Amino acid sequence: MTIKAVLFDIDGTLVDSNDYHVAAWNEVFEHAGAHFTAEQIHDQIGKGTDMLVPTLLPGTDAAEQERMGDEHGTIFKSRFLDRVVPFAEARALLMRVADSGRRVVLASSASSDELDHYLDLLDVRGIVSVSTTSDDVEKTKPAPDIFAVALKKLAPLTPAEVIVVGDTPYDIEAAAKCDIRAVAVRSGKFDDDALTGAGAIALYDDVAALLAGFENSPLDR
């Protein structure tokens, strides 16, 4: 079936932000008296607070999770957000998708404030058809909520008519729970085995490589 919409993750996929999220979470955990390596935190990047905190600190109650998430957001936005840059050809890939007649969707676990910032950073307000954020859902990736909401906004398109592009296993897992196929990019610094193990149907180094091979990619089927 022809692909009619492409759902893009943002952090680690379109913009180079994962390491900044690691740094912000590291500070949050240090303040809470918990100590993790950068790799341990990185391996959870792609999840929202509701999924990330309980994985690293089991038993953390909902109020404390929310507090830590708010602290992370404050640190990230005040110290790191303005340092985030788009990956090469990120906007060009979104343009290529739009020019091919497909709808461009941003489906992220980022907050609505961060999404708003990235729309301007990428200069894609006139390109993006639909967007979702952590504010739209009860649970973030790897729960399916974010892609499920996107599908509702794209109705009457079916899962077979859309595809996801993401950088973490959690993007791939969330897509699979909605019966959506997913392409993975390595720019988020996750191992190939983790991405293919989660079900990625294709791997590309980054969005520039995906753009270069667009006509032979799963996005153009």
What can you tell me about this protein's structure?
- The protein contains 10 helices and 6 strands; from the N terminus they run E-H-H-H-H-H-E-H-E-H-E-H-E-H-E-H.
- Helix 3 (49-56) packs across helix 4 (62-80) and helix 8 (169-177) packs parallel to helix 9.
- It has 2 domains: 5-16 and 85-220, HAD superfamily/HAD-like (Rossmann fold); 18-83, DNA polymerase, domain 1 (Orthogonal Bundle), CATH 1.10.150.
- The mean pLDDT is 96.
- The protein has helices at 18-31, 38-42, 49-56, 62-80, 90-99, 112-122, 145-154, 169-177, 192-198, 207-212, and strands at 5-8, 103-107, 128-132, 162-166, 181-185, 202-204.
- Strands 3-2-1-4-5-6 form a 6-stranded parallel β-sheet, sandwiched between helices.
- It is of the alpha/beta class.
Can you lay out the helices and strands and say which pair or pack?
Blueprint: E1 5-8, H1 18-31, H2 38-42, H3 49-56, H4 62-80, H5 90-99, E2 103-107, H6 112-122, E3 128-132, H7 145-154, E4 162-166, H8 169-177, E5 181-185, H9 192-198, E6 202-204, H10 207-212
Helix pairs in contact: 1-4, 3-4, 8-9
Number of strands: 6
Unreliable segments of 5+ consecutive residues: none
By secondary-structure content and strand pairing, the structural class works out as: alpha/beta
How much of the sequence lies in strands comes to 5-15%
Strand line-up across the major sheet: 3-2-1-4-5-6
Which sheet architecture does the biggest sheet show?
A: 6 strands, parallel
Order of helices and strands: EHHHHHEHEHEHEHEH
CATH topology of the largest domain: Rossmann fold
User: Which CATH class of the largest domain?
Assistant: Alpha Beta
The geometry reads as globular
Using the CA coordinates, give the radius of gyration: 16 Å
Q: Helical amount among residues, as a percent range?
A: 40-55%
Can you say what the CATH homologous superfamily of the largest domain is?
HAD superfamily/HAD-like
Number of separate domains: 2
Q: How far apart, in Å, are the first and last alpha carbons?
A: 7 Å
